[in-house]
Amino acid sequence: MEIPEHLHELVDQLGKALVQALATDDASRSLARKIQHEGFEVALMIEATVALHKRDTNEAMEPSLESAVPDPELAATPWSDEDRAFLRTFKISLD
Q: What is the per-residue DSSP string for the chain?
């Protein structure tokens, strides 16, 4: 399946947002500080696989996530079970 160029950009932005989320997460920062207090430097490298698949246009749309997602463009995005499972691996919940 050919993926449109704008989707490549969105996936890249998602990766950057996930890295930013981890970098600013209080629990992650606290754990990194604990490791540093043990005398070690911390370098975090994350590899994520993003799977894209075309949705059936008849597939039911979930309610808007406007209150949970600050970007209105993302707020109208329906999340599949696979999307939710992927985000749960990063302890991100959309519920």
A: -PPPHHHHHHHHHHHHHHHHHHHH-HHHHHHHHHHHHTT--------------PPPTTSPPPPP-TTT-S-HHHHT----HHHHHHHHTTT----
